[in-house]
Amino acid sequence: MNGKTNWYNSYVEYGIANGILDKSYANYTRAQMNAPATRREFVSIFYPAMDGYKALNNIADNAIPDVKLGDKCADEIYAFYRAGILTGSDKQGTFNPDSTIVRSEVAASKNTCFYICIFSITCSRNLKIFSAKSNVIPNGFIQMQ
Questions:
Q1: What is the DSSP string of 4-59?
Q2: pLDDT tens track of the chain, all 145 residues?
Q3: Which of 20, 25, 38, 71 could connect to 15 by a Cys-Cys bridge, CB 3.0–4.6 Å?
Q4: What is the pTM of this model?
């Protein structure tokens, strides 16, 4: 367990130290940390991993059927849609913000973020989780320099 009480401690410490996670995560209970994440929570956690997201798609404000401007994490969700990281669950682009995100969706989203950053389409400060240089950070995180 990486020398820590919980399997996730080193990841949370790294995320907080590098500005990816809010400091409030340090106070989450084990039950909170092991609970399934919603799609909205996933976006809120991974959004700070990059400084900016270049719009590759023209997604109008309030175009996502179940996410309206002013909703919790709406700006971050629209940024992911516009950057091509997310496309929705159906032809209308429905996001399903309160449904649990599944492993395959996480993998696809992370792969897209990695691709965008590595090929310099939109990364202004470099992605803090992956690296072209493969500088391994504690417990498997990789940081770009």
A1: SSSTTHHHHHHHHHTTSS-GGGGG--HHHHHSPPBHHHHHHHHGGGSS-----S--
A2: 455 688 888 989 998 998 888 899 999 999 998 899 999 999 998 888 877 788 888 999 999 999 999 999 999 999 999 988 888 889 999 999 999 988 888 887 777 776 666 554 444 444 444 433 333 333 333 333 3
A3: 20
A4: 0.73
